[in-house]
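A quick aside before the break. I want you to see a complete sequence-to-structure record at least once, exactly as it would be stored in a machine-readable document. Don't worry about memorizing anything.
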Amino acid sequence: MSVQAAASGDRVHIGFFGCRNAGKSSLVNAFTNQQLSVVSDVQGTTTDPVKKAMELLPMGPVMIIDTPGVDDEGALGEQRVKKAKQVLNRCDIAILVADATKPLRGADEELLQLFSEKELPYVVVRSKCDLLETVPERDGNTLYVSAQAGIHIEALKELVGHMTLTDEKERPIVRDLLNPSDWVVLVTPIDAAAPKGRMILPQVQTMRDVLDAHAGCLVVQDTELKGTLAKLNEPPKLVITDSQAFAKVSADIPKDIPLTSFSILLARHKGVLQEAVRGAAVLDTLHDGDKILISEGCTHHRQCDDIGTVKLPNWIQKHAGKKLEFAFSSGTEFPEELSPYRLVIHCGACMLNPREMRYRQKCAAEQSIPMTNYGIAIAHLHGILARSLEPFPEIAQLLNC
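That is the input. The structure line, written in tokens, reads:
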């Protein structure tokens, strides 16, 4: 995948925060070298987070996010402040923008406290420094800049581009399970829900990770899998399937061929696989009236046989044999209050970065609400979870705990 096509979930997220009229939008425009955000002297011009993908060297692909002022007022202003603070849940780096001609305000100090609580690396940018008699030099992680005069913009990009993230642990999708010259079968059903003329993101990401291991992939639909395997001279190292085809694929491949799903691989990649496996056990203990939240990290047009809103609820209802209630969320609208739910089932989160996915997992854990994901739930419902976890023995042993 090219840098331009790098998925949002794989980019370092850099958020610009501060009070109204601190110069956030002007700075974002100068930082990205584009007129990304509307700039005005009117307070509260930025009403919703604005995102821009770019490349920041030597860091690589990043997502720049401009946010509303955290000192906004009134009922609508409170919603804007809430939106701005929600951005912190998916940021890897935070930039506090504060007017250099004024002292830091209470809202600025509150942001710095939030950065520390969330263990976010951050930079304090004192904007509009061209209005000062002299421009101070950089002091630690505080830098004086002027978007209007172009002062220290490149220095800021250089500083941010070399920052060390608090979570730099490499999380491969599948390449650590492979050796050079191994090959993998990817099962990708093409049905009404499949995007016309292209593959869905988890499939593309997995293919790239296989190639990075110097291994090979064979991509087939579930309807051709059995016949394809019969023609091969040697078995594949691994079969990876779309979750909705789990049952058929499991029945069609020999037991000695390891099997897992894109969704399970992504749960491991995002760092939430262990808790998701534990959460799936709740599917066996549901009662009449229990409410289940099914959450997706992106928004898309729902098909009549949509996996999240149709297939998954039907499979759960059949498995539990109870009268259950289902609620749904998508995109950035993940509920902060989860107490009404007996269980949260999340998608593979290909569009969410690891920090946001861990935040959602943490929200559930702090409220004692179990959470699992599509692939793990579907494997459990079809009685093949143990098999789908065989490539990860340290996780598979949780099924016996």
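Two observations worth writing down. DSSP finds 14 helices and 14 strands in the chain. The longest strand covers residues 12-18. We'll return to this after the break.
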